[in-house]
């Protein structure tokens, strides 16, 4: 079995460990690092997975998953590069950081796969996009996809599209949460109790998501099916268009893409 080391046990790291365990991966094939001793002990007690320092985790790992925040990457790479066994697969889930950054800090020829997941990983419903670095083969991509497949769906994209992926699906859940928050507020404005408004909107969002996933119809057709002539829905759609909601969403996602590019550049120039 492949031994996997997860460096960084924040929400994404913990969710990945939990998903791998739920998929049948033995706890003995997993190890993680965590800077805070109390947090490490709590995770070990709850998940049954051992914690280690970076050197210990990397020493026996076939795959090293780097799940730290971009601003914490420099000291980790300096430490990891000195102890990583040549040929070990490195999988990065760090937003905005290119594979070249990792390749430059690792032993020559290290295969690196870049992944952009999102927070629904915590409920096993992540959308992850992965890209191969200069030395990663189809087999390395298969291994990375198997790992990420334990916590959701996976697609493969050229690395040049990763900043767009970050903006669209990496940040995407926040856009939906923002929209749901506004709709709940609207329900309260219209006289509904908050709990009732939340139940109505969350279930509607869940049902709509299932329809989008399971139907072969374009979103336009699904929306038109709800939009009766001279009805309530078209009145609402007219107001959304009048206020430029569609254009605002496009501009927002473009801004997120630009910020992803900036993050990658800022780390590389430190």
Automatic annotation (TrEMBL):
The keyword Transit peptide does not apply. Its EC number is 1.5.1.2. Signal peptide: none annotated. Pathway: Amino-acid biosynthesis; L-proline biosynthesis; L-proline from L-glutamate 5-semialdehyde: step 1/1. Gene3D superfamilies: NAD(P)-binding Rossmann-like Domain, ProC C-terminal domain-like. Keywords: Amino-acid biosynthesis, Cytoplasm, NADP, Oxidoreductase, Proline biosynthesis. It is an enzyme of class 1 (oxidoreductase). The keyword Transcription regulation does not apply. It catalyses: L-proline + NAD(+) = (S)-1-pyrroline-5-carboxylate + NADH + 2 H(+); L-proline + NADP(+) = (S)-1-pyrroline-5-carboxylate + NADPH + 2 H(+). It is found in: Cytoplasm. It holds the Pfam family P5CR_dimer. HAMAP family: P5C_reductase (MF_01925). NCBIfam families: proC. Catalyzes the reduction of 1-pyrroline-5-carboxylate (PCA) to L-proline. This is Pyrroline-5-carboxylate reductase. The gene is proC.
């Amino acid at each position: 079995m492949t031994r996997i080391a997860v460096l960084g046990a924040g929400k994404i790291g913990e969710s990945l460990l939990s998903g791998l365990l739920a998929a049948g991966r033995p706890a003995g094939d997993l190890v993680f690092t965590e800077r805070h001793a109390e947090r490490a002990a709590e995770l070990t007690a709850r998940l049954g997975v051992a914690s280690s320092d970076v050197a210990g985790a990397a020493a026996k790992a076939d795959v090293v998953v780097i799940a730290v925040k971009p601003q914490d990457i420099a000291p980790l790479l300096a430490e990891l590069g000195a102890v990583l066994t040549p040929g070990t697969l490195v999988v990065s889930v760090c937003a905005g950081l290119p594979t070249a950054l990792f390749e430059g800090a690792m032993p020559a020829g290290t295969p690196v796969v870049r992944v952009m997941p999102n927070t629904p990983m915590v409920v096993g419903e992540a959308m992850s996009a992965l890209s191969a670095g200069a030395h990663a083969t189809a087999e390395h991509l298969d291994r990375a996809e198997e790992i990420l497949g334990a916590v959701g769906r996976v697609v493969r994209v050229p690395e040049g599209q990763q900043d767009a992926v970050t903006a669209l699906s990496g940040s995407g859940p926040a856009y939906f949460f923002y929209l749901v928050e506004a709709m709940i507020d609207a329900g309260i404005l219209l006289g509904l109790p908050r709990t009732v408004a939340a139940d109505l909107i969350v279930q509607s969002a869940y049902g709509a998501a299932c329809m989008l996933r399971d139907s072969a119809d374009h979103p336009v057709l699904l929306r038109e099916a709800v939009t009766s002539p001279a009805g309530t829905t078209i009145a609402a759609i007219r107001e959304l268009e009048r206020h430029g909601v569609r254009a605002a969403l496009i501009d927002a996602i473009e801004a997120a893409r630009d910020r992803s590019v900036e993050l990658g550049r800022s780390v590389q120039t430190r």
